[in-house]
Write a structure and sequence with these properties.
Blueprint: H1 8-44, E1 49-54, E2 59-62, H2 64-70, H3 74-77, H4 91-104, E3 108-115, E4 121-132, E5 138-147, H5 149-193, H6 197-228, E6 237-240, H7 241-252, E7 261-266, E8 273-276, H8 278-294, E9 300-309, E10 312-319, H9 326-329, H10 353-363, E11 367-371, E12 379-386, E13 408-412, H11 416-428, E14 432-436, H12 439-448, E15 453-457, H13 465-473, E16 485-489, H14 494-503, E17 507-510, H15 515-525
Parallel strand pairs: 7-9, 13-14, 13-15, 15-16, 16-17
Antiparallel strand pairs: 1-2, 1-5, 3-4, 4-5, 6-8, 9-10, 10-12, 11-12
Helix pairs in contact: 5-6, 6-10, 7-8, 8-10
Length: 531
């Protein structure tokens, strides 16, 4: 054996070492490939778009979600080719910021829209972090794009709702303070009015108008809330829309040829029968006509047309007024929506009427739409309701006119002011009235006197009006089962009316009351009494 030649044992050891190193290297390669495969599988199945770039920011890999969303290939988007997916208004800003972060080795974060394969832009929150070696040098960048479109839309809706809430509260304060100011003024003028009948007549009219205005505002708030919660119930009957529309026109008083706004009504000669709640449909027609009057400066024209075709009744209310801006037209039937108002808020209202109209029309199985050529071009509201078969027999209205009889009534009301007003209203109708401030006082009067009807507030200090009615109906000492009972209350929901009926009340009147309501309720319950 030559000197210096490797010994057989040493050669075998070296060969064995090389085999081990090769095996280790192969295993490490296999583990790396498995790790890379697991990483890619994980990255392909996350909700975000993901990508990797080299240390200079050159993107060399995207996950499957990127390709699915953008519709691009690696050849399209590698390097800086991703810019083709960005919105033209944002791409320059985004490019400058990400290049600056890549150069500085800083974490990059930005928000911008990306175009989908279908051409839609959606907003993404994007972020990239550097991956460093043990010495701190950047090996690559790993980035993600998270779709936040729905979150941004929700935030915008919340901001819009908050803005509308603030506007609504400001409108509500304005609309309530105006009638309250007038009512306060009436109270201060009362001493002077006692000496001058003309002043008394004028402030009486003011008081009536302002109370009616406050009632409409409060009723509108409650009605919209009921519609939104599905708590409105219709009392349907077969009715001729001609009569309903004609009644609204008469109540508005614009059939007068001297009115500042000209009315052109075409209701037709034939009945137009539908199944509906006459009170609710009157609300809709009155609101549409009221809006037309409010937003049509004189001299102007309002056209009301009623027609029927294809199994539907169609009502159109067109005006030559201020029109509706396109951006408002899209949301005109949403609550609290109004056009621009000056500080005087000369148009008034809370923006609830059209929302209520749409809810009521929908409950009747119909639809309503608004159209306008723009500001200054007038507007049109068109409403459709399904037609109905004619009724089997006509329904007669209650007779109208002054009362024909005087009745002995008991009024149970704990509020002194309301008791005074209601007593005078009833006495003004020719009735004799006894009053009681509590349920026990009323029961004592009933035990001693014979009354023809009892009008009772529901909220009494000693027991509720419901308990009073139950006790009165269940009194074994004297038969009061036939004594007409009328509930007086500020609660007007269907469940409130049902509770009144279960307690034994024959009628349920919602405050504030007027002589017409009282007269009608008594006419329905007492023999010989006219409405």
């Amino acid at each position: 054996m030559l000197p210096g030649a490797p010994q057989p044992q040493a050669a075998e050891a070296a060969l064995s070492q090389q085999s081990v190193l090769a095996a280790i290297e192969g295993e490490l390669q296999r583990l790396a490939e498995q790790s890379e495969e697991r990483f890619r599988s994980l990255a392909d199945n996350i909700a975000q778009l993901a990508w990797m770039a080299d240390s200079d920011g050159h993107i060399f890999w995207y996950n499957r979600r990127w390709y699915e969303y953008t519709g691009t290939t690696l050849a399209d988007a590698e390097g800086w080719g991703w810019k083709r997916c960005h919105h033209p208004e944002h791409v320059e800003r985004v490019t400058e910021k990400i290049a600056r972060c890549f150069a500085a080795g800083e974490i990059w974060e930005d928000t911008f829209p990306l175009r989908s394969a279908q051409g839609e832009y959606r907003w993404f929150l994007s972020r990239a972090v550097p991956v460093r070696n043990a010495d701190g040098a950047i090996l690559r960048w790993f980035g993600t794009n998270t779709d936040i479109t729905e979150r941004l839309e929700t935030e915008e809706r919340l901001r819009e709702a908050d803005r509308r809430k603030d506007e609504f509260l400001a409108m509500l304060g304005h609309e309530l303070r105006n009638p309250l100011a007038a009512i306060s003024g009436v109270a201060q003028l009362m001493p002077q009015a006692r000496k001058d009948p003309r002043i008394f007549d004028q402030i009486s009219q003011v008081l009536d108008r302002q109370v009616n205005q406050m009632t409409r505002l409060i009723d509108g708030l409650l009605e919209v809330s009921r519609v939104a919660r599905g708590k409105i119930f219709l009392s349907e009957e077969t009715l001729d829309l001609r009569h309903t529309l004609d009644a609204v026109l008469r109540d508005r008083g614009i059939e007068d040829s001297k009115a500042p706004v000209r009315l052109h009504a075409q209701l037709g000669a034939e009945p137009v029968w539908v199944r509906g709640d006459p009170v609710r449909l009157t609300q809709v027609f009155d609101n549409l006509l009221g809006n037309a009057l409010k937003f049509t400066p004189p001299p102007g024209d309002i056209h009301v047309e009623l027609s029927s075709a294809a199994g539907e009744a169609c009502i159109q209310v067109r005006d030559s007024g201020i029109g509706i801006a396109p951006e408002l037209l899209e949301r005109i039937f949403q609550p609290f929506q109004q056009g621009p108002q000056d500080l005087a808020r000369s148009s008034g209202g809370l923006g609830l009427g059209l929302a209520l109209c749409e809810g009521i029309v929908t409950l009747h199985g119909g639809r309503i739409r608004a159209s306008s050529a723009g500001l200054g071009q007038g507007s049109m509201f068109e409403m459709h309701l399904p037609l109905s078969e004619p009724p089997q027999e006509s329904v007669e209205d209650l007779p109208s006119g002054p009362h024909s009889n005087s009745h002995h009534l008991l009024l149970v009301e704990d509020n002194a002011d309301e008791r005074l007003v209601l007593r005078h209203l009833l006495q003004g109708e020719g009735h004799t009235v006894r009053v009681a401030a509590s349920a026990r006082e009323a029961l004592g009067l009933i035990a001693r006197e014979r009354f023809e009807a009892v009008l009772c507030d529901v909220g009494l200090p000693d027991m509720s009006g419901y308990d009073f009615a139950l006790r009165l109906r269940g009194d074994g000492e004297q038969d009061h089962s036939e004594l007409p009972l009328i509930a007086l209350t500020g609660y007007g929901l269907p469940q409130d009316r049902e509770r009144s009926a279960r307690a034994g009340f024959d009628r349920h009147l919602v405050k504030p009351l007027n002589a017409t309501q009282l007269r009608r309720a008594l006419a329905e319950l007492l023999p010989g009494e006219d409405a």
